[in-house]
Write a structure and sequence with these properties.
InterPro entries: MobA-like_NTP_Trfase (IPR025877), Molybde_CF_guanTrfase (IPR013482), Nucleotide-diphossugar_trans (IPR029044). GO terms for molecular function: GTP binding; metal ion binding; molybdenum cofactor guanylyltransferase activity. This protein is of the alpha/beta class. It contains seven helices and ten strands. 33% of the residues lie in helices and 22% in strands. A hairpin with a 3-residue loop joins strand 7 (123-128) and strand 8 (132-133). The longest helix has 13 residues, at 142-154.
């Protein structure tokens, strides 16, 4: 059994007044596109969000073909690390794939490979380009990463990569990533202009 966790609770200030998670990308809410991309390689979906987002996210994910849980943030404004922690705490499987809500080109073949590579370890995390880790496109042992996030937050750290370095993790390098996906899988949407360009590509 595998869980997919989508982190949707950010304020996305560069996106304007609209909630990016439910913004329409070529007629489909952005969060739904991400969920649909991973549906073939997960069994259960968890969506992390702020309480005021719950109704809109439930509407965006209505009819989704996997069981879904909404995991609301309890502490506001703690950033994506807290969102990952909350999402992973709601996971009932040993391993979970964590993705940001704004990655509409996510490749399920890579997600599948990350689950394979994480087996027996605490995490499998892509590292591409000039050494950039992709912690919001990674598979974690849910309890280990949630505990690591909690410890980092208690120490006042909000750098999303910090908890990873306390875990037994495996790196999936760019060459291996490219065996399963293009680097578009990591592309995220931050502005209305980027959303418009993505819509053009989706045609």
């Amino acid at each position: 059994m595998r869980t997919g966790v989508i982190i949707a609770g950010g304020y996305s200030t560069r996106f304007g007044d609209e909630d990016k998670a439910v913004a329409s990308l070529a007629g489909t809410p952005l969060v739904r596109r991400v969920a649909d991309r991973m549906s073939g390689v997960i069994d259960v979906l968890v969506v992390n969000c702020r309480p005021e987002q719950t109704d809109a996210l439930r509407a965006a994910l209505d009819g989704y073909d996997r069981p879904m849980t909404i995991a609301e943030d309890t502490d506001r404004d703690e950033g994506p690390m807290a969102g990952i922690m909350t999402g992973l705490r709601a996971a009932e499987t040993e391993y979970a794939f964590v993705a940001a809500c704004d990655m509409p080109f996510l490749d399920p073949a890579l997600v599948d490979r990350l689950f394979e590579r994480a087996g027996g370890r605490d995490a499998a995390v892509p590292q591409v380009g000039d050494g950039w880790f992709q912690p919001t496109h990674a598979v974690y042992r849910a309890s280990a990463m949630a505990d690591a996030c909690e410890a980092a937050l208690a120490e006042g750290s909000h750098k999303i990569i910090d908890p990873l370095f306390t875990l037994d993790y495996v790196v999936v390098d760019e060459d291996e990533v490219r065996e399963y996906a293009s680097l578009d899988t990591f592309e995220n949407i931050n502005t209305p202009e980027e959303l418009a360009r993505a819509a053009e590509r989706l045609g």
